[in-house]
Amino acid sequence: MLVGSYGLSQIDVDDIAKFQGQEGATVASTLGHELSEQQEKQLGKLGNDNAGYTKAHAVGTATENAIIGATRVDGPPTFKTDFLNRVNGSQNTNYNYPNGKNVTVTVNVVKNNITSVSSKVQNPSPVKKKP
Ligand SMILES: [Zn+2]
Predict the structure, then answer these.
(1) Among candidate residues 94, 68, 81, the one with its CA nearest the CA of residue 2
(2) What predicted TM-score, i.e. pTM, was given to this entire model?
(3) What is the pLDDT along the chain (131 residues), one digit of tens a residue?
(4) 70 close to 95: Cβ distance less than 8 angstroms
(5) DSSP-derived secondary structure for 62-123
(6) Distance, CA 8 to ligand 1 centroid (Å)?
(7) What is the distance between the alpha carbons of residues 117 and 131, in angstroms, rounded to a whole number?
(8) Which of 24, 45, 60, 124 could form a disulfide with 37 if both were Cys (CB 3.0 to 4.6 A apart)?
(9) Are 82 and 76 in contact (CB under 8 A)?
(10) How far is the CA of 123 from the centre of ligand 1 (A)?
(11) Domain spans of the chain?
(12) CA atoms of 63 and 60, how far apart (whole Å)
């Protein structure tokens, strides 16, 4: 399971802890996303299928955006699945802030577990000069 599993209704707290100290995706925003997604699934009585996941994931993403004050834009899927159906590789997710700041978060995964997370900040908000 990677971060959270819609199908199993579970959250991997070890994976979420890897977001500690990052910009863009944080422990709070990742946890908020997964909790909100599960709430939508369970209270909305959504099916354990792609349609249910797509709807619940959109609600999770909206919660995540509200927590960090940015808009999440998923990069192209680059994870690979091995013969045991485990996720491996790295994937980028972008976060666009209203002030023009962009953060790219890279998640590295080995056998369904996050091994490291890094974030790269572009266009940081300029320091205001005194007149
Ligand atoms: Zn999701």
Answers:
(1) 81
(2) 0.87
(3) 788 888 888 899 999 999 999 999 999 999 999 999 999 999 999 999 999 999 999 999 999 999 999 999 998 889 999 999 899 999 999 999 999 999 999 999 999 999 999 999 998 766 666 67
(4) yes
(5) HHHHHHHTSEEEE-----EE-TTS-EEEEEEEEEE-TTS-EEEEEEEEETTEEEEEEEEEES
(6) 13
(7) 39
(8) 60
(9) no
(10) 27
(11) 4-122
(12) 5
Ligand 1 center to residue 53 CA distance, Å? 8
Q: Six-digit token pair at 102?
A: 């962009």
* Type of residue numbered 122: Q
Buried b (16+ CB within 10 A) or exposed e, 51-82: ebbebbbebbbbbbbebbebebeeeeeeeeee
Q: What's 24's DSSP letter?
A: S
- Exposed, middle or buried: residue 127 (CB in 10 Å: 0-12, 13-18, 19+)? exposed
Instruction: Read off the tokens for 73.
Output: 């834009």
